[in-house]
Every structure is written in C-alpha cells, then in structure tokens.
Amino acid sequence: MNAIDCIGLMKSFGDPPTEVLRSISFSVKEGEFVAITGRSGSGKSTLLYVMSGLDDPTAGEARLFGENIHGLEKNRLHRFRNLRMGFVFQFHYLIPELTALDNILMPARKYRREKEKRPRALDFLSQFELEHCTAKYPSQMSGGEQQRVAVARALLMEPDILFADEPTGNLDSVNGEKVLRIFEKINREHRTTIMLVTHEMDFAARAAREIHLMDGRIVYDRAQGGVLNGAGR
Q1: CA-based angle 30:171:53, to the nearest 5?
Q2: Distance CA 144, CA 227 (A)
Q3: pLDDT (tens digit, 9 = 90+) per residue, 3-40?
Q4: Sign of the CA dihedral with 17 first, then 18, 20, and 24 last
Q5: How many CA atoms lie within 13 A of 179 on its CB side?
Q6: Is the pTM of this model over 0.85?
Q7: Among 31, 7, 5, which Cα is nearest to 207's?
Q8: Distances (CA, A) of 218 to 10, 38, 129, 232
Q9: How far apart are CA 55 and CA 138, in angstroms?
C-alpha cells in the first residue's frame, strides 16, 4: 500500500479565485524520503498542508494509507493525524511554559500515555544532543535546540509519515545539518515516510526523490536514478 496518493489535487484562494495547486497527482511509497521543491509561491507549502489534511482541497483527493483524509469525521481525523502523522514547521511552536522534556511529551498527554512515552522522550534528548536542555524552557535554548525539541515532539508517537515544512529555514548551516541527519536516521532505521518542503537544494539532493513545483504544477518528479513515471503532471 502507498503511504500517500494525491489524485487531481486543486487549491484556489480568493475571489476571483487564484489557482495555487493545479491538478496535482502522484503517489509515495511507504518509507520514501521525498523533497518538495520550487520557488516561493510555487505551491510547496500549500501542497503539504492539503495532502496532510491541515487544509482542504478545492477539488481532488489526498489518500493516506488508503484513507481519504478529507473524508474522515472530525474526531477520527484528529486521532489519525495525532497517531500516524508528525509535523515540523519552520517555527518550532514550543509551549514557552513547558520544559524541553514536557514539550516533547505533549502528544502523549492527549492519550494519557505520558508515562509510557517518557523513556522514548528521554532517548530523543540523548540522541539529539539535548540532554543539557531537559529541564530548560524554550527561552533558555538556542534556535537549533528548540527546533530539535520540535522534531522530537513530532516523532514521539512513532508516526508513519513526517511532514516537514521548511524545518531548517530559520537555522544556521550547522543546526540545519543536524536536523537533516535526524530525518535521514529515522527514515533509514524506522522507515518513516518523510515529506520535506525545502528551498535548500543541497538538502533536497539528499532525499531519495524530489518533486519540483512551478506555478502549482509538478514540472519534474525525480528519483536519484532519473525521472519517475508521471513527471510533469
């Protein structure tokens, strides 16, 4: 089964409507690491939001593991999103009143699984070189440390898919590299499907596949070995 199937996705904003996504269709296999690239305004982030169910399409479908994500009842959608998807954004959105450890554990609190997930959270603090931040608040951490805490939070519930929207956009090259290495590690070791929106072409080149958008359309869909079927749709 594919992790993601996008079928004729379209998205328009405003009146008169401006088309941001124009009949986008592609599939992603479980365990793929895909970079979504394109200039500012090409539709990269809009595509990520629509395919993950954070926004609705004007037309078309986004299916995650065979489920039409936009056809799910609200409570089921929230549960599906919380348990099977992880999200990392350009801004970390940590809760300022909580420590690094408590921020990481936030997704588990919704399901009263904080005690169960605490060892995993502590392991992330170690893996991500954040042990010294365990009891620190966001205001006491650097930007790179805050973003790594946000990544750990996104991975706590062991999601099947990680959606990342310009996660290194506010980081220097050293911290950007640390975040990308974390993505590569979880993709390699846990077969987590990763959808990474990025303007960093060096980072995009390290994904197994690159989908490039221009004016709301896919202009190429490239694996490391060459152009995939369906390119240009």
Answers
A1: 40
A2: 34
A3: 999 999 999 998 888 899 999 999 999 999 999 999 98
A4: positive
A5: 33
A6: yes
A7: 31
A8: 12, 9, 37, 5
A9: 28
